[in-house]
Amino acid sequence: MRYIFREILQVVKIETKPKKIIVFLWFLLLVGFSTQTSLAQQLVKSVDAIGMTVSNMDRSVEFYSKVLSFEEVSDVELYGTDYEHLLGIFGLRIRVVRMKLGEEFIELTEYLTPRGRPIPVDSRSNDRWFQHIAIVVSDMDKAYQQLRRYKVQHASTGPQRIPDWNKAAAGIRAFYFRDPDGHNLEVIYFPPGKGDAKWQRSDGRLFLGIDHTAIVVDDTGESLRFYRDALGMKVAGESENYGTEQEHLNNVFGARLRITGLRASTGPGVEFLEHLAPRDGRPMPIDERANDLMHWQTTLTVDDIEKAFNQVREGKFALVSSRAVTVPDSVIGFKNGFLVRDPDGHVMQIIER
Fold first, then answer.
1. What is the mean pLDDT of residues 235-239?
2. How far from 61 is each of 99, 100, 188, CA to CA, in Å?
3. How many CB atoms lie within 10 A of CB 33?
4. C-alpha dihedral (282, 286, 290, 292), degrees to nearest 10
């Protein structure tokens, strides 16, 4: 590589024509992009779990298990300096419950101390603190009946079917609702030929697993700089959704969305929701903290935590953790980790097992 650069530099010194300079600059850009992509490909291996902060753990566990068929995997209580540095909260004591649906996981965290703030009552699905998990169902009508039976709070007016003109998503049915704390959730039905093939194998179950977590972003390009270029996740699909079905799904009049899906090698995807219209969604509060109920954190696994920490720091992304933290025991399921914010303030928990 040094030899190639030396030879090109000689050409630039001898030939100062604009065409030569432009070719040289393009070469530098391509080499830089290739190097960055190569580095990123060595980072995120999987999306391990999607987590959210809850106010009453027993109530939340009952909701996710009874209404949505999640199964409890572990229940631990954590405190101490290392966890304070990891989560950026002094004097914390937390209860963390990990739950499973199909092959995917969620992690619920209750802050016994200090308590955080509730989700704003006027939240809309184009505000940039919006995040949800998309729970795949084998039958939308039965799933909606189940949710109505437990009197869940609607976020959509009702289940919506993506129209046939939208080739990327035609026939998909979806419905937004909220858990007891006001976190947005989605149930989604994939017709044959859409989504992962595993979603066509229900084995008699109604709720099958988590396809993705969706986040509202202000600028898809900026978000790609973080998730694709820095973390190495791959773009898996794109579409532009609008019309009355999308408006009623999001419950936002005039909604027009640019949707971009990304995936790691395993685990749920991460889906960008960029609202092309209306553009009045509010930014993440600058003082959002992990004990606030609007807080979500998506856990991503890597093989080298120090390399990942240096990569995001060099990219000048906002760190929540003071450092890459080594936790004192294995009860939480990993040995090293840190929290970092994407360009819109959504939090990723990067871990090494």
1. 95
2. 8, 11, 21
3. 11
4. -60
- Name residues whose C-beta falls within 8 Å of residue 39's C-beta, 6 or more positions apart in sequence: 232, 311
pLDDT tens, position by position, 239-281: 999 999 999 999 999 999 999 999 999 999 999 999 999 999 9
Distance from C-alpha of 298 to C-alpha of 212, rounded to nearest angstrom: 11
| Contact indicator for 293, 116 with CB cutoff of 8 Å | yes
The answer to whether the CB of 132 falls within 8 A of the CB of 216 is no
Q: In this structure, which topology does domain 41-353 adopt according to CATH?
A: 2,3-Dihydroxybiphenyl 1,2-Dioxygenase; domain 1 (3.10.180)
**pLDDT number for residue 59:** 98
- Dump strand ranges (E) for 226-313: 234-242, 256-263, 269-277, 296-301
Cβ count near 145 (within 10 Å) = 11
Pairing relationship of beta strands 347-352 and 153-154 according to DSSP bridges: unpaired
Q: Which residues of 102-140 are buried (b: 16+ CB within 10 A; e: fewer)?
A: bebbbbbbbbeeeebeebeeebbbbbbbbbbbbbbbbeb
The pair of structure tokens assigned to 181 is 């704390």
**Residue 222: how many CB atoms within 10 A of its CB?**
13
